[in-house]
Amino acid sequence: MSAQSTTATPFDIKQYMIEKAAMVNQALDSAIPAKAFPQSNLLHEAMHYSLMAGGKRIRPILCLAACKLAGGLEPWALPVALATEMIHTMSLMHDDLPFMDNDDLRRGKLTCHKAFDEPTALLAGDALLSLAFKTASNLSSYPVDVSPDRIARIVGELARCSGTEGVAEGQLVDIKSTGLSEPVPLDKLEYIHLHKTSALLEAAVVTGAIIGGGSDEQIDRLRGYARSIGLLFQVVDDILDLTKSSEELGKTAGKDLASDKTTYPKLIGLDKSREFAEELLGQAKEQLNGFDSESAAPLVYLANYIAYRQI
Ligand code: GRG
């Protein structure tokens, strides 16, 4: 795939992401009081450890960008942007636990249950989910331009994307589909990714747009954009898994083909997976037609970033 943009204005996505991630990191860092409960500070320490262990901050950045595109000011969406990263991080903490993906490393550091222990990681993840809802629903952290009605809507979106209609459902179906003798069919693979990965990206974009005061039509378009980039994220992940591990092994069949997880390259082949990724990128950008192209530039380039990333 060649990295092309649909806008004429040059836009430095790397610099943009560095700046926004720095703002998000600072706000996340102060969202967890270091010494709030001296008797049980362990919970805060573990939450803080995982939240600040790195990460690209794609979800909060998407949220801020969507808020601005929908007519708001970026800082309006900061509370809900932080909430999306908290939900994302807690899902990673739980995913890393021995009874799920059983990973020792995350974001280049020890996973939470390795740095602390399993009960601490489980409960710190739970507490981070609660903190996400507390942060997003705190009326006093939004300006008066953002009505309580919009805040109620974004809390609903966050709840929807986390539970049976989103991440938790996607994760369970994924777990139950792994290690079977037959590969997962394409429609089920898409179902898993739309729930496990797209749902939270969708919530990030849609909540940003709601806070920014977007119209129903704009919100629908941005929802479509987010669903496409969510699936794109996963298809590219599958391609990278295969090509990176092939490079490392110096042969064509890498980790992906050997693992018991169904991936796009496994089901439809590498070339068709690349074509599908290109198609999804096109669909995502199409949803942005009709918005002012300069204002839409961050979302266009974020889609490009997801499509052409190397990690
Ligand atoms: C949310 C209620 C609730 C439960 C969580 C454990 C679980 C249920 C879900 C796991 C979901 C999971 C691991 C999804 C993968 C998401 C994904 C694409 C991760 C990688 O995202 P990046 O690249 O990571 O944005 P960084 O580290 O940059 O943040």
Automatic annotation (TrEMBL):
InterPro entries with a match to the protein in the record: Isoprenoid_synthase_dom_sf (IPR008949), Polyprenyl_synt (IPR000092), Polyprenyl_synt_CS (IPR033749), Prenyl_diphosphate_synthase (IPR053378)
Sorted UniProt keywords: Isoprene biosynthesis, Magnesium, Metal-binding, Transferase
Keyword Metal-binding: yes
Gene Ontology molecular functions: geranylgeranyl diphosphate synthase activity; metal ion binding
Biological process according to GO: isoprenoid biosynthetic process
Cofactor entry: Mg(2+)
Protein name according to UniProt: Putative geranylgeranyl pyrophosphate synthase 1
Species, as recorded: Carex littledalei
